[in-house]
Write a structure and sequence with these properties.
The chain is of the alpha/beta class. It has 5 domains: about 55 residues; about 100 residues, Beta-Lactamase (2-Layer Sandwich); about 80 residues, Helix Hairpins; about 150 residues, Histidine kinase-like ATPase, C-terminal domain (Heat Shock Protein 90); about 140 residues, 3-Layer(aba) Sandwich (Rossmann fold), CATH 3.40.50. The chain has 15 helices and 17 strands. Strands 6, 7, 8, 9, 10, 11 and 12 form a 7-stranded mixed sheet that branches. A 5-stranded antiparallel sheet has the order 2-1-5-4-3.
Length: about 625
Amino acid sequence: MDNTITKKVVDFPTKSPTKPMSRIEPMAKAIYWLSLVFGSSLLLFQPLFWYLSFSYGIISLVAAGFCFIFFLVAAQYNHAKDFEKRQVSVINQMQTRLSHYKEVMSNSKELISEFDSYGNLVFANNAFINSTGIKFEKDQTTHFDDLIPKWLLSSQQEFFRTQQLEKIRETQSEVPIIGNGGAVIWIEQRNKMLFDSLGNLVKTTCIGRDITHQKNTEKTLIEAKEAAIKSSLVKAQFLSSMSHEIRTPMNAVIGLIYLMLQEEPRPDQKAHLETLKFSAENLLELINDILDFSKIEAGKIEINAIDFSLEEIIKNINHGFGTGAAEKGIGLSLNYDERLPSMLIGDPLRLSQIMNNLINNAIKFTDEGGINISIKMKEERNSEVDIFFSVEDTGIGIPSDKLKTIFEDFSQVDNANLRQGTGLGLSITKELLKLQNSQIEVESTFGEGSIFYFTLTFKKSFIREEKLDSVLIHDCGTSCKNNSLEGMKVLLVEDNKINQKVTKKFLTKWGIETTIADNGKIALDIVQINDYDLVLMDMQMPVMNGIESTKAIRALGGKFKKLPIIALTASAVLDMKRNAIQAGLNGFITKPFTPDILYAKVASCYKKEAVRTQRAVSV
């Protein structure tokens, strides 16, 4: 094979360009030379162009800065204009609202006033002006002190001064304002104090209401209450005085009756004396009812809690009314539940009073048949017992329309032939039971009879039962004749001559050596001269009363602090007993007294004194 490389020569045409090319050539040359000249010019003037470009750039930047500044100024101007417009709008709105608020405050029914930091009145609405009658004018200064009455000015000044010092922003008070003509207008208001950032008072706003009518009503009620209290005190003092004046002669009457009955009178005389004794005791019962009613009205009745034997009390009550029932030819029975505790804790005196009222009423209004007293166990607990009491009779009964009124004050069964007493017995019974958280109930059929019943709760007593002393026999017969008190020395302080004789006669019959003092001052002198086992002290006496004399005797000290002193008085209302005990007296006997009560009190003091003497000797 032939490896020779053959070269092919291409021949380009050698003929000249065509005619169109000859036309373009001069133009191209011209463009060439222009480009050459322009390019050379650029090379020659390039620094100038750079300078001009730099200057133009600086000028552009400055112009742009000025434009930006002008833009900011324009924007701020526009913003200020807009803010001013909005500010004006807000101010207008605030002024509109302020005007509205002022209009509301001016026409509000609340009494609105404002005071500056100096206490000058700077605003008062129409209600405040109309209610107080104050002429509030801007060119006239009205100070807070000018509005307050002088009798309350210092306390009001202190009130607001304290509020300001302690930075108390809101308080409430009742303020009297002096109106036209000097009339006092009372305003109950809320006081709001406004303080600045430094704690300085700016103003005080007071919003209140007129309570003058309310205050006047309160004043009227207070005056009425004070008048009622004064009237009640006057009534109590009157009852106390009348009680003393009535009981003093009654003591002599009843005492003489007892003495005459003990002197073995003829049968006809004894009958008259028994009738006189019955009438005197009825009169005393009426007096006691009125006094108890007065005590209940005054809220002076107290329920005691002492140990007592219920069985002994009920049996004594049954025995005491047995004679009266027998005289009328009616029966009196007792149904006593043996399951009841032997000893209880309560007020035996008030229980006796309640049962006496109910049994006494039953006897009064029963002519045929009988009366049944029932005492039953109702419920027993660990430390308490509920006891059911009832008094049933076969008397005249109570009409159904009277059942709701018989417990009212001074209410009686509407029967002219059977009206007896004050009509206070059932009312007093109702109140005494109410004080012991109980209530009286009644069931009755007119013409057939009635039953009164109630339930009382007593605490159980765990002390040993003590039987009543044999001296507590109603007629004070055998025991009083035993002269068991012989040798006892008693100082009787009494200003009434008849009561002196009656009381001394009783004491003498019992073997007691008696000395009489006409008043407390004489008693104070005598007691320091002679030794006495007991002082029987009247309370109301001339020169020196019983309480003053007792205090003076106790102040002597030594043996006089332990000397038994018993109040013997006809005063039986309000706080006499309490005052006597506080003065240092050891007991209290109310006149008129029965001989057995006097004997028991005297004997108890003498026995205690004898025991003390024996102990002193043994030591």
